[in-house]
Predict the 3D structure of the following.
Amino acid sequence: MSRIVVLGCGAVGKHMAIDLCKAPGCDVVAVDVDQKALERLAQEHSVQTRIEDLSTLEGVTRAVEDADLVIGSVPYSIGYTMLEGVIRAGKNIVDISYFEEDPFGLDDLAKQMGVTAVVDCGVAPGMANIILGDHARKMKVARYECYVGGIPKARNAPFGYKSPFPVLEVLEEYAGSGRRVEDGKVVIEPMLSETATINIEEVGPLACLNSDGLRTLIRTMDIPDMIEKTLRYPEHVDAMRIFRDVGFLNLSPIQVKGVSVRPIDVTAALISPLWRYGPGEADLTVMRLVISGEEDGKPAIYTYDLYDEYDPETGTLSMARTTGYTCTAVARLILDGGYSQHGISPPEFVGRADGCRERVEKYLKDRGVCYRMKRS
């Protein structure tokens, strides 16, 4: 019996716990500070629960003390501290917390502790990296393009958007910048400065935003041109540009009747109720990968398309399916001995290991998350 501890019982974390508890030989414990969320989960599924403050090293250490494997799904603001705590406890982990810090700052520690720590293991970064890692060991990749977005199925959502993640995290992304690699050099541009669109057959035209989704690929991949774009409805991007221009996304505090406040915090507090998915509300995830280069001495272009929707039978948002099931697939790989590299492992490292990509793809396909591939 393998004991899996899931740190964080939010929109994705709870569905990873549900997915893992269905597997034979898995004993799953969900840990969060939200007692009500844990109680709802335990009422419907065979998941044990534990209340801990995961923003503290002591809370993380207690939570994982008897774990065979840890799943990380905490807010980005505490993600690095959580990861460090798990590694210091000597536990293997697969993480989707997407913190801002460089995970390789913990690489030496993970190797010293004999820990396998797979980070950024969602959809993109995540499955996209796994696919790229597999291609990079078989061909000379010259260009990598990733276009990805999680959006509400209903276009008439408030400001054209809803989010399963904390709204402040989304707005802080919009206030920030994205990175791409052009001719081997890193180029940084404001996220909302992009004006390109891409047509997705099932959805129609979507606006592209500069994003920082390349993350570890900038360090681990020797590819001269790489981009990752976040996809949103065009009307949503128009609205967010107005928010930016008016100052609603400003990070610097201002004085309002003698009180110091950040405009972005006020914006997040006002919008959060509007952007929360209600029961039965559907989202969708779309992604297009284009990997081009030379294979067996000939030009080759591989295009991958993903279109996934909310599952009404289980009440699982598409973003939880596409992100969470990639993470749980890699968790099963580690538990079964299919991947065991010590240190910090971004998903592209998993993709370059023999057989790992195929096993993850099968795991996802068994759950209805399917990637379509075309070679040209």
Notes: The first helix runs from residue 13 to 21.
